[in-house]
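Minutes, project check-in

Agenda point 3 was the complex the collaborators sent over. CS summarized: two entities, 467 residues total, and the question is how they sit relative to each other. Sequences were read into the notes so everyone works from the same version.
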Amino acid sequence: MNEKPLDPRLERLVAALYGESSEEERREVDRLLAEDPALRREWDELGEARAVLARLDADEPAPSFVFLADPAPARRRGGGPWARLRDALDRLGPVPAWAAAAAAIAVAVLAMNGFRVERIDGGLALRMGEPTRVLEAPATGPGLGSYGEVAGVPETGPRGEPDGAVVPYLTRDDMRGYSSEMFRSVTALLSDFGRYREEEQAARMQAMYQELLARQDDAYQDLRGRIEALGLGLLYERQESDRRWQDAIGSGNREGAAPEPTQPADDSKEMKQ
Amino acid sequence: MSDEELVRLSRAGDPHAFNRLAARWEGSLYRFARRTLGNSEEARDVCQETLIRAYRNLPRLREGAKFKSWVHHIALNLCRDRFRSAKSRGDHLSLEDVSNEAEGHGGPGRPAAEAADGDAVRGNLSAVLESLLDRIPAEQRACLLLREVHGFNSEEIAEITGVPAATVRTRIFYGLKAVRRVMESRGLSIEDFR
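CS then shared the predicted structure for the full assembly.
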């Protein structure tokens, strides 16, 4: 972004506004503020803007993104269920008096209606009314699968209680475990994807290199073949040229030769006269 | 336990340590992302992605004591990616737009329609503040939020945003000026926020 460069005095002003100046710099700023009314107005306006922003809710509720499993279940950390309940309440923060009174009334009403908290498999279950027994889940027979055998699938079907009662529920520990498993799976998936992509890219580059070598070899062989063909052609042309030259010389000799004599010349008679 | 100790434990393989780090800073990350992007759903995505990246890249963090600055730096970069892909709000203004708005429509004597708008929103302080932040350029808004809401100093904000500390102070100055201009253009005063 194109921001106009700040006047050094204004930069020192901002530093002093947030207490980031040394003592000497702060004295300098105070002196400038005393001497320059315009700077003083800037200082006041900046302070007012800060006062407005200070009304932003710093404690705005935020959703929880904690998704790593707690490796130490609550029972191994000690302190019992009451200590854990206290911890949970402490995390909620201060509660208004009217909310606390409403909660107390609600607890009293629930208690009168058979509300109870039971401990199940490392977690807590909230129950109302008289305990009821649920029919046990049918035993798995031939051809029937089990949710527990499928990795990573939350088991929402009935689970067995120590006393034999079967109650359908999903505990907090289960959710934490599955969240942790999901996170580990996602992390492993991302790592595998990254590794696979790198391997794939390396394989592609290797394939491209091999193809390039093959193309270069083909081009070389083609060029070599053409050169050889050209050489053979030149050799043939030379041979033809030599043959034609020999033929031409041969025919020229035959045409320019002296006619065959019919009798031998009598040179001795002419000499004697 | 300090951030530095939790980072050391997490590097040693203790997932509970990273759990505590995430729980400690998830709120700050979410609020920062939501006010920077102006969208709760995108802020959730940014916050989750930030924590995942922090978990995967924790070995690269040289100083465990700077975990807070580091995760906010990751969050800010993810917010910038969102801006670039134009997935967030469409009325993002440049510095020039804010200046033009202040000069063309600000100051006393503005049209009555705008006065009515200011009256309508005056009753909801949070909505007014959010609407003020909406009109500030993104980088200035980020620096202001990191300074005013999340308590980082100029040096830390410089590390988070990747610019010199002097540039951070420049952005904070112009951001505060922009807050005042937008307030004046909407007929709001400091008294409305007391």
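Noted in discussion: Chain A is about 60% helix and 5% strand.
Follow-up: revisit at the next meeting once the mutant set is ready.
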